[in-house]
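pasting for the record
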Amino acid sequence: MAEVVRIPILQIEEYLVASIQTALHDRAAEQFRDDLLARIYETKAKGLILDLTAMD
């Protein structure tokens, strides 16, 4: 089974920041969603900055 790409999720003050640098297949997108929801719950973040500038 191939390893799922993990997207880093950083916390800056009360916000989370994630930068997607590559296309995500279904499993990677599901993993990102799960990781993101867990981090939002853990940190009680007020917002999310999602950087998609590297996407075509």
